[in-house]
TrEMBL record:
It comes from Bacteroides ovatus. This is RagB/SusD family nutrient uptake outer membrane protein. Keywords: Signal. The keyword S-adenosyl-L-methionine does not apply. InterPro entries: TPR-like_helical_dom_sf. Residues 1-22 form the signal peptide.
Length: 114
């Protein structure tokens, strides 16, 4: 019985040694990402990066509506409800906290997919 197991093991080792990776085709490379050293070498690639950032900002319907407010809210003071609070001073109410958190999430998602 031991002799049979030794013969089977020897046959399996010989069979494994005679196969090569080229026969199986397992060494073909299919890159899923762009090489960072050669990317953005021309205007078309730069434009694709900018478009991917703006797509992330536009895909959220609430954020795309308030994008201008976020940019201009920090520029100056607005007289809104009878006080001199800034337009982006949303940390005082629970609704404002959710809006700011979601806005930052969209901005970081745009950076991540750039």
């Amino acid at each position: 019985m031991k002799k049979l197991l030794i013969y089977i093991a020897a046959f399996a080792m010989i069979l494994a040694m005679n196969t090569s990776c080229e026969d199986m085709g397992s060494l073909e490379e299919h890159p899923k990402k762009v090489d960072a050293t050669t990317f953005m070498a021309n205007a078309k690639e730069v434009e694709s990066v900018i478009n991917s950032i703006y797509f992330q900002l536009r895909r959220d319907p609430g954020f795309s509506r308030y994008l201008i407010v976020l940019e201009e809210g920090l520029a100056d003071y607005c007289i809104g409800r009878g006080n001199y609070a800034t337009a982006y001073d949303t940390g005082r109410t629970s609704g404002g906290v959710g809006f700011s958190k979601d806005s930052w999430a969209v901005l970081y998602r745009a950076i991540r997919f750039a």
